[in-house]
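$ fold --in a.seq
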Amino acid sequence: MTLFSSPTCPMSHCARFVLHEKQITADIEFYDPANPPEDLLELNPTGASPTLIERELVLYDSRIIMEYLDERFPHPPLHQMDPVSRANARMLIKRIDQEWYQLLDEIVNSGEKKSARAKKLLRENLLEAEPIFANRPFFMSDEFSLIDCVVVPLLWRLPSIGIDVISQNEIINNYAQRMFKRPGFKRSLSEAEKEMMDVPK
């Protein structure tokens, strides 16, 4: 099994987080998505990050990769067992993607004016979610789950894009610091991602 991954893409980071939480043995090949390696392009002509290769299987959507890894290696499970809870978790991940990750993408890839608006919205959205961070040990769950694998890479990137939610909100900070200390999260970080927490706010 090989995971082709950008060293800075948050979607790739989510997939790597799942890999390391489940202690799955896989090769992680870091590459520049602007210049994908030939062996990747032969299997996935889009060159998208992340791309998971296992024998004849080629997957190149972060959320599909995460689900596949959880089903392929069922212990520890990162989805709740009953269909209703799994469906609710998938809906929540979709909402996080549409709201938080879309704003993160705007901040990283747009001009200063649009970026400032997106930063304000993302900060406000995260602060509005404070009761969710406070309510249960993990994000809307009593157990660590795929939802945490989606939320935590985004929180990790906040200082590097000039959003100060973690340092200014004790509840979100408590959640973030607990997640950042998980061995699986530490192992999931690329060298470039390790430097993100050192970037001035």
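$ fold --in b.seq
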Amino acid sequence: MTIGFCVRKRQRRVEQSTIDAFRELPVANVSDCMSRMYAGGARLRPIHDAQSVLAGPALTVRTRPGDNLMLHHALDIAEPGDVIVVDAGGDLTTAILGEIMVAIAKKRGIAGIIVNGAIRDAHEIRRMDFPLYAAGVTHRGPYKDGPGEVNTTIAIDGMVIEPGDLVLADGDGVLTVPFDQTETILAATRRKQDAEQVEMAKIADGSVERGWVMESLQSRGCEFE
């Protein structure tokens, strides 16, 4: 296929039961269980009111900055529950999508869209209550000429996203869990979540112990007056 102008078939898609399980867990805890090595970058912020976890299989799009032709095609072929992840080069001078495209995505049952680039019609999109993350907002609209790629490997701020990988996002940001690591990371995150619930209960009843802080300071040679 031609590099820069191709549409591939997605070969795999994370299971719905796994998606549902991750939707109950904070993205920060998943990140901790991935050694804090993966992140979509601090610029990707929710345009909507992110009160819950966005979770779904990635449908990836790579597009030329300022052009959304391939994103339009992705909207047409996406399956319900997909998260469309767009690498638009991080460009903030031209919006990649706006209110009309979000309305299409919502009607088609797409779970959410993540754009490493800019969007527009932010006020209207907030009122639509559709999960959308972007790096910025601008009024200047896109072109529709290409080139671009659909369902190829992309990367955002060093985080690699393969088609069908698990995409997670909440108020803390965006994270991708590799397809073949989802069960391992799910089990680890559940253990961490359980441990945090125990810690929160101890804080509530006043039984939490913080001796480890002093021990850590002393082990590092900290001097006290």
